[in-house]
């Protein structure tokens, strides 16, 4: 069975390579036409998608999936419209393929250009969220890549329906359907065969919980881009506008708890703690947030005493860890110890403090007087994202079209030869 599954995954990768070789020659006009056709197909077949998703939700509920996972899994008319619009937004983005990054003419007359090129075959391993199926397919297509999608069994019906619709749309505009393929999801060995298909797959991107990401990064022989979990902090500085701070904390925590840019920890400078701790505690509790607090927060009513585990937890729920710190330096140290390198925010009117925070905090996105909820490819003008990278090589932060490309040097000569050494 394992050998059969490996052969199945590798055969899909070979078909993807053939599709990628054709896609690399496609004009922007053809790719954009495909994206618009895909968006139209999603809208016209929305009832089919929602019915498939209903089966996944029912199965997930019966299996006892947490509310946060079920929220990630859910597709309704508004969300189908959202993923269709995301494809249209990707269509209006500039095509990264062929962009000249730098170039020059050498003294000997050789003309050099470094240009963006597709990665080739991109594998995606992800959990629950069927919107990722569409975002990954659309971004891969526009950047000239073929996508191998390995979603989770919790979204099997949704993903199967979505990929069938996308493949139909590709064929309708005379592009290879194998630009988008869905891999088997019931056996974890399919992940292993994908992430070790070196030579067949050019890049793998894991997106999901810490267990999934760590397993892929540690076991892969194919190059990977690590998308991290989001233990995001909001630090309220001594010179913060407390009205602003309250609004940012509430938005970062409660806008949508199941996403990786939600705030999971709150740090408050001691100089504003006497006023802000009771205030923010009341505001959070009015939104049904459970606070896991240090000694000063725990003095407030209905606050749970925090344990060491709370500081490093990505709750993905209406929970937040909260602590009073003596200084900005202590806040930065706490973030360095417990943060995941995703998104961190400071609320302050002190420009020097903001500059120190942004310089010293090591994260993919650092905000001054803004909610961590903005760490998102669409919000950053990318149309959609294939994930949020928390590593430092090649790509960091929300990954859009450019992050799905590599580069090559194109050198033009006129019979140039290099003298013998």
Q: What's the gist of this structure?
A:
With 421 residues, this protein is of the alpha/beta class. The chain has 14 helices and 16 strands. The protein has a seven-stranded parallel sheet, with helices on both faces. A four-stranded parallel sheet has the order 5-4-3-6, with helices on both faces.
Describe this structure in words.
With 421 residues, the chain is of the alpha/beta class. It has helices at residues 2-23, 28-44, 46-62, 67-73, 77-92, 131-142, 156-172, 189-195, 210-219, 242-254, 270-286, 295-298, 328-338, 351-360, and strands spanning 100-105, 111-118, 121-126, 146-150, 180-182, 203-207, 232-236, 263-269, 290-293, 304-305, 319-325, 343-347, 365-368, 388-389, 397-398, 405-412. Helix 6 (131-142) links the parallel strand 3 (121-126) and strand 4. Helix 10 (242-254) packs across helix 11 (270-286). The model has no long low-confidence stretch (mean pLDDT 95).
């Amino acid at each position: 069975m394992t050998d059969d599954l490996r052969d199945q995954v590798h055969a899909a990768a070979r078909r993807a390579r053939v599709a990628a070789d054709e896609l690399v020659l496609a004009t922007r006009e053809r790719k954009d036409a495909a994206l618009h056709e895909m968006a139209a197909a999603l809208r016209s077949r929305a009832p089919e998608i929602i019915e498939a998703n209903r089966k996944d939700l029912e199965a997930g509920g019966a299996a006892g999936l947490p509310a946060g996972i079920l929220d990630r899994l859910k597709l309704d008319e508004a969300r189908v419209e959202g993923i269709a619009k995301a494809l249209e937004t990707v269509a209006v983005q500039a095509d990264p393929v062929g962009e000249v990054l730098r170039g020059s003419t050498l003294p000997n007359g050789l003309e050099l250009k470094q240009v963006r090129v597709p990665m080739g075959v991109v594998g995606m391993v992800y959990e629950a969220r069927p919107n990722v199926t569409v975002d990954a397919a659309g971004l891969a297509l526009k950047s000239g890549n073929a996508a191998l999608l390995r979603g989770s069994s919790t979204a099997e019906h949704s993903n199967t329906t979505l990929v069938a619709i996308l493949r139909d749309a590709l064929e309708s505009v005379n592009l290879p359907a194998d630009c988008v393929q869905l891999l088997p999801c019931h056996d974890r060995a399919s992940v292993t065969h994908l992430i070790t298909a070196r030579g067949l797959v050019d890049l793998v991107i894991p997106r999901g919980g810490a267990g999934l990401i760590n397993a892929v990064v540690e076991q892969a022989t194919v190059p990977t881009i690590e998308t991290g979990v989001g233990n995001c902090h909001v630090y309220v500085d001594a010179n913060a506008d407390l009205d602003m701070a309250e609004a940012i904390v509430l938005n970062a925590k409660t806008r949508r708890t199941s996403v990786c840019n939600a705030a999971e920890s709150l740090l408050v400078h001691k100089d504003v703690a006497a006023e802000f701790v009771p205030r923010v505690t009341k505001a959070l509790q009015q939104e049904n947030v459970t606070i896991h607090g240090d000694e000063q927060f725990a003095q407030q009513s209905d606050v749970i005493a925090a344990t060491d585990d709370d500081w490093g937890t990505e709750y993905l729920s209406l929970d937040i860890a909260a602590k009073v710190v003596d200084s900005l330096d202590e806040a930065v140290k706490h973030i360095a110890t417990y943060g995941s390198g995703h998104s961190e925010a400071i609320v302050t009117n002190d420009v020097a403090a903001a500059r120190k925070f942004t310089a010293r905090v090591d994260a993919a996105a650092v905000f001054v007087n803004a909610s961590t909820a903005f760490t998102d490819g669409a919000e950053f003008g990318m149309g959609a994202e294939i994930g949020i990278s928390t590593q430092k090589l090649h790509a960091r932060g929300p990954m859009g079209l450019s992050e799905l490309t590599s580069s090559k040097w194109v050198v033009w000569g006129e019979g140039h030869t290099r003298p013998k050494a």
